[in-house]
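Example with several molecule types.
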Amino acid sequence: MQQFEFSDISRMLTPILARHGGDASRLLQVLLEVQDACHTIPSEAIDHIAAHFDVPRVNVEGVAGFYSFLSTRPVGEYRMLFSGNITDQMLGKDDLMQYLCNKLWVEPGKVSEDGLVSVDSTSCTGMCDQGPAALVNGWPLTSLDQNRLDLICELIRSRKPVAEWPPMLFEVVDNIRRSDALLGEPLVPGNGIRAVLTRGAKETLAEMDKSNLRGRGGAGFKTASKWSFCHAAIAEEEGSVICDINGHPERYIVCNADEGEPGTFKDRVLLNSYADLVFEGMTVGARVVGASKGFLYLRGEYRYLLEPLEKGLQKRREAGLLGDNILGKAGFSFDIEIHLGAGAYICGEESALIESLEGKRGRPRNRPPFPVTHGYKGRPTVVDNVETFACAAKIAEKGGAWFAAMGTAQSTGTKLLSISGDCASPGIYEYPFGVTVRQILADCGARDPYAVQVSGPSGAMISWKEFDRKIAFEDLPTAGAFMVFQRKRDPFQIALNFVHFFAHESCGFCTPCRVGTELQKKIMDKIASGHGTASDLEELKSLGHILKTMSHCGLGSSAANPVLDMLEKFPDAYERKLKELAFEPAFDLDGALETARKITGRDDDWAHL
Amino acid sequence: MSKNIIIDGLTVPFQEGQTIMDAAMAAGLYIPHLCHNPEFKPHGSCKLCTVNVNGRNVASCTMPAAEGQQVLNDIAELNAERLALTQMLFVEGNHLCPACEKSGNCNLQGVAYYLGMMSPHYNHFYPAREVDASHPDILLDRNRCIYCELCVRASRDVDGKNVFGLTDRGIMTRLIVNATSGLLGDTSLAATDKAAQVCPTGALLVKRKGFAVPIGSRIFDRHTIKDVQTGGSHE
Amino acid sequence: MSDRKIRVATCSLAGCFGCHMSLLDIDERLFGLLELVEFNRTPLTDIKHCGPCDVGLVEGGVCNAENVHVLKEFRKNCKILVAVGACAITGGLPAMRNNIDLWDCFQEVYQYEGGLEGGKVPNDPELPLPFDKVHPIYEVVKIDYFLPGCPPPADAFWRLLTDLLNGREPKLDYEMLHYD
Ligand SMILES: Cc1cc2nc3c(=O)[nH]c(=O)nc-3n(C[C@H](O)[C@H](O)[C@H](O)COP(=O)(O)O)c2cc1C
Ligand code: SF4
Ligand code: SF4
Ligand code: SF4
Ligand code: FES
Ligand code: FES
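Resulting structure tokens for the full complex:
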């Protein structure tokens, strides 16, 4: 394993630290670069970084330990992380990962003896429409099969830098299958902002209100209300604590591009092909609430989009659409900075996201106060989903009435769905709200559909009996994921996958979720191994209740949804797995004797249970 | 005119800026809690103090009191849920009370007694956690840490030393100390620091104070945590 | 109460007999108790196997294969099974070995301590084979009631038994409930 000399560390760190400056909010960005350079965060680097930012060492170590793409123990020079979503699993992820491990002589989760390679699973990488997928040193690999893995194996063995690997391995396609108001007609960059400047900020807020746009990130809060709260927070705080040097209260616009919900990949496509629309929406929001600084929080899995997005920002600056005096309007300044995440689903939760933006561990804050009044660095902050900003840009250009005419009364406009699983044409489908599940299944060529996971693990699993339900806030709300399962799939395995996801992603702050998601996982594993009984089901139900009612944030309170939906809607799925007995030991009795059998060399009757 | 909230049918006055927990404590009402200590900024992690406000569960130690709040606290359903959380804290660590110097004076135990915990109920995790005896005056036994971050807050906000912090996440969460070696003995912690005194469990203990009071005569052997924390009497 | 005496069995698994001692500590009340109960298998009676019983009191956790056999026999034969003491309920002091690798335990006991079995690990089938970890008994069989304490106070035993004898749901006073 590589050893780092202190002088090496400081030589490596100096340019990185110089580039990022002294503000501790850059901590996570610095650690990402250190991880890239060293394949770990060396302990000496932690000291160095702590001194540079003048923060306690524990803070740096705390951040380094929190994000799954950072590691305080070395990973392979080539780090392969297979996307572990259920859709990847259905496409053969487990076998492929084992295949690669066998070829490379490495155990899953371990580093090869020469330190060359490590292979492991990670949470959904957002490539469900072109899986099985993986990341190699952070770069997405799609449509994996044995042939591609053979090639990858060769490239790793010959130590070819990832940058020189054949581009076809990294090809990510949009797969837009159905376009409507948002994806159908492209926006001329600047037209949304021009409309705002002509109409006025207040009047634009009124149009937003009229549009009845609701947040696309899941919770469905009315966007105009959020913006006006943030705006109002300014007035309220004017002249008091929350002021910058000029006496202006600074406020922020944050675009939530964490897209961590397994099965969701529509923001990936928006950022890849409609980034201007998203930036335009952020600029519109900035004008309305009076912000001069914006952030795009880009999930680490999408870091391949970082350079193209930076270029897009630069183009907008050159076109006068970002920066000072936007479109010639004196005093209208706004710019956008991109922050990378580092493998933490919880950072999609808005207050955890803000903590992460500040360079901290991504743990959800206590609320109230809410981000609209006390967000980034304690200042009023709007956090909206990528798609929400895209809608906002269109509304700015075309008006609220145009938008409100689409969809249903309570769910206006259109919704992007990320469709994956058992269907002929996975990809992005844009529908006006109110479309039925049945219609969608027909359009995507679903094969013998039996169940659909709407809005990912934290959403709802619906059965074939519910296919006439509608995609809408008033019926089936969704952040966009739509995973199709055919009859031969086992709903228990689906729930098992999701339960592991939540246990892996719990931030660990609050008791019910930290311990409850782990207990839930252990019980599901016990049932999966054939040792489940009726009392385990009762336990799952009561855990579900605790998670729902006692958790600190939405992760914990939805972590039991997959299990509770399965219990309610697919009783066959687990009943046939249960033992007749009322009670089974919590652990494998005979297995727990194995070590002692090895040590003593015994194999007699009394050495077994 | 003073403002009021209703807790279990009782009218409880509060001042602007107080949490539900603050108001309850001032009125001598007990809401079970572990990570809260009125001397420090509220944290909100253990969730034992969860109450029901107008139909919704919230952590009372972080929720600002506000006119019109109907608060349910001492009800069977919430106490059952609090018991479940307490049991979770027992099984996620290694709590061998008979071998713990804090036994009898431990808030985790005190809450468990108060809620009538007869067993930890859940299956034990028996995690492998490190004990750090490197400091001459203070013992850190991570087996008993419940991640309340009271030591973190005390060291940061009172002692100005930042000796403690958390790393990793989820069930792997770990208490760390501010030293390259990772050892408490290499930090600036002193036995007189606030951080060395606030641990509600036996995770942080000042050394050489063992068995000053015999088992059976300690705080929660005689008095419920409710009486101790509200200043009420048991007899 | 029925006219037949209540049949009680007790055993100690991975425990220290401390709980049994505490049971005996109910002193003169023991005589009153003997009017009402008859003891089946217990370390006090020398009956080796548990017959059909009303109440089984189990002290100690599960640390080896033999413990499981005894525990399962108790579960099969006792209508009501009570976990008695910290060891039965949390693993207790024996669970302090849970953080030590089983290999290291064996080495420490059989190979470093010269003399014992000539420095060799014994492989006699008569010896109970240890588990990787010590577990509380409720992780192996269903348990009906718990009596915490290390050991539980004599009064707690008395309360539990008299409550059960009188068909009441056992309930300890605050002072009777402790974990140490
Ligand atoms: C665990 C968790 C994860 C979340 N992940 C995301 C996410 O990846 N993207 C997103 O836009 N919102 C996510 N949210 C919702 C955000 O907290 C927030 O409601 C949203 O960004 C607000 O934007 P909107 O109003 O435009 O929907 C998540 C919430 C929770 C509780
Ligand atoms: S619910 Fe889970 S993710 Fe949310 S704060 Fe609690 S531990 Fe963290
Ligand atoms: S910290 Fe408290 S609950 Fe844990 S072992 Fe010590 S006395 Fe028992
Ligand atoms: S050591 Fe004590 S005070 Fe610190 S987090 Fe753990 S339990 Fe809380
Ligand atoms: S006391 Fe309120 S959450 Fe811990
Ligand atoms: S033997 Fe009774 S508590 Fe351990």
